[in-house]
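Hi R.,

As promised on Friday, here is the backbone we talked about, encoded as structure tokens. Could you run it through your design pipeline when you get a chance and send me back a sequence?
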């Protein structure tokens, strides 16, 4: 069934409760509308952090977020690679309806842009009187395109316009709005300015500059995506001592021109672990700054990841059990590729130490934020607000199904329908297409294909796969 509807929330009991809560908790700040900070990690697996079972990599700040906030166990991304997943997040549509449904590189830098006039989450915040800032990786256009961040609703942008160039942590340039900023100390593969730290500092400054009025901060950090590199500080040295060197296999690929390629790395496991801990420190810095500015009780932080863990550039998700108890990694539509961590932190509003198994996905974020800020609600979305779950009030509406598609490796589709999970492989070649069915209540690792035993469910999910999507000229299974 095609669930492309107008999102029209009433300003009834739920809105009144949310507003009352905001007013009470933020009276000392004389603000009613909550600030929203959305922190998006890059290729972080659900098993890479301690709130989700990681035993080796240290993430104390994310653990604090979970202990003082809400940990979601069934949060799904837009899909299993970056650009379409972020498009789903920004537009409130799943990948059967988004314009961007796959990674499509443009030259000399950037990705396929969204059409002019595409309504984004950032536009919604702007219309509600919010300052809007994006810091990190964009990946939904190219410099000067119709969906450059500053045309897509962001007042301020600093970082990588191109997701491919974001592989390089010592880039020769970044973008400050529409202005290219050069880094001569990184020319000729020199390692002078570490981009992730610089982007993080700009994000903190943005929060400080807008502490006295409502703001939306989209912190799309590039950690821990490959390439695997960072300053070799005391944290890195500690992981080198902790992880046996015989477990590590140096990444040998080294290219003359790094632009978008992965550089060589001697200790990939220690480097990856250090990058995750560095990301965790960024989260702690944000939390500490909110406390310093006395706006922590009026600011909702959401932490998530854009897709499952990668195995590129020397990364080894098997070693860290990065996918947790799930099968698959980035580019898979099995659970490990699309089920990722999500933690919500909002002192005085989100119940401390709570866990939710509510079924949610990236396309739910836009309607959720619309309800929280009493913003525009007349936009097309496949999402459902999860404010009732977040605040523990009123009855939570549930999805009938969740849908994903993926346009590499022969094309893939997936549907989550209750506890049933359907996965179609090699969609572009009908004579080779395979349909797999899993009962997640009994088989969370998706090991046992029970399609032959449940023909009625297979037929139901195949119909959803047909009806849940509109045809795309750019991303067409029949043309792959």
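Update: got your reply. Pasting your designed sequence below so it's all in one thread:
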């Amino acid at each position: 069934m095609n669930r492309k509807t107008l999102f029209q929330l009433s300003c009834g009991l739920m809105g009144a409760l949310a507003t009352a809560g905001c007013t009470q908790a933020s009276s000392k700040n004389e603000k009613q509308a909550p600030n929203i900070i959305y922190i998006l990690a890059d290729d972080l697996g659900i098993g890479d952090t301690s709130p989700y079972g990681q035993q080796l990599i240290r993430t104390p700040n994310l653990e604090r977020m979970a202990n003082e906030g809400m940990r979601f166990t069934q949060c799904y991304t837009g899909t299993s690679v970056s650009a379409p997943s972020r498009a789903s997040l920004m537009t409130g549509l799943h990948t059967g309806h988004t314009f961007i449904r796959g990674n499509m590189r443009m030259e000399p830098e950037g990705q396929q842009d969204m059409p002019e006039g595409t309504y984004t989450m950032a536009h919604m915040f702007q219309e509600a009187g919010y300052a809007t800032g994006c810091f990190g990786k964009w990946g939904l256009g190219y410099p000067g395109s119709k969906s450059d961040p500053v045309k897509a609703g962001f007042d301020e942008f600093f970082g990588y316009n191109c997701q491919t160039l974001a592989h390089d942590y010592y880039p020769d340039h970044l973008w400050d709005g529409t202005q290219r900023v050069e880094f001569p100390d990184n020319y000729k593969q020199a390692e002078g300015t570490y981009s992730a730290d610089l982007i993080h500092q700009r994000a903190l400054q943005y929060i400080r500059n807008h502490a006295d009025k409502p703001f939306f901060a989209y912190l799309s950090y590039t950690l821990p995506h490959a390439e695997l590199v960072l300053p070799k500080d005391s944290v890195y040295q500690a992981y080198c001592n902790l992880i046996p060197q015989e477990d590590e296999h140096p990444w040998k690929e080294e290219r003359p021109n790094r632009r978008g390629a992965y550089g060589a790395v001697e200790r990939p496991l220690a480097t990856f672990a250090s990058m995750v801990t560095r990301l965790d420190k960024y989260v702690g810095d944000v939390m500490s700054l909110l406390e310093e500015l006395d706006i922590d009780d009026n600011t909702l932080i959401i932490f998530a990841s854009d897709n499952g863990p990668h195995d590129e550039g020397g990364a080894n998700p098997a070693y860290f059990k990065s996918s947790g108890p799930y099968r698959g990694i980035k580019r898979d539509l099995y659970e490990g590729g699309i089920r990722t961590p999500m933690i919500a932190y909002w002192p005085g509003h989100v119940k401390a130490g709570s866990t939710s198994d509510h079924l949610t996905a990236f396309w739910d974020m836009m309607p959720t934020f619309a309800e929280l800020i009493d913003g525009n609600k007349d936009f097309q979305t496949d999402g459902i607000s999860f404010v009732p779950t977040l605040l523990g009030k009123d009855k939570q509406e549930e999805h009938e199904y969740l849908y994903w598609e993926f346009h590499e490796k022969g094309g893939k589709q997936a549907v989550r329908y209750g506890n049933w999970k359907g996965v179609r492989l090699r969609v572009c070649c009908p004579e080779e297409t395979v349909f797999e069915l899993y009962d997640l209540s009994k088989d969370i690792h998706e090991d046992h294909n029970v399609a032959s035993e449940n023909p009625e469910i297979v037929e139901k999910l195949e119909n959803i796969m047909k009806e849940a999507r509109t045809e795309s000229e750019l991303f067409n299974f029949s043309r792959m």
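One thing I noticed while checking it: Residues 350 and 391 are 5 Å apart (CA to CA).

Thanks again,
M.
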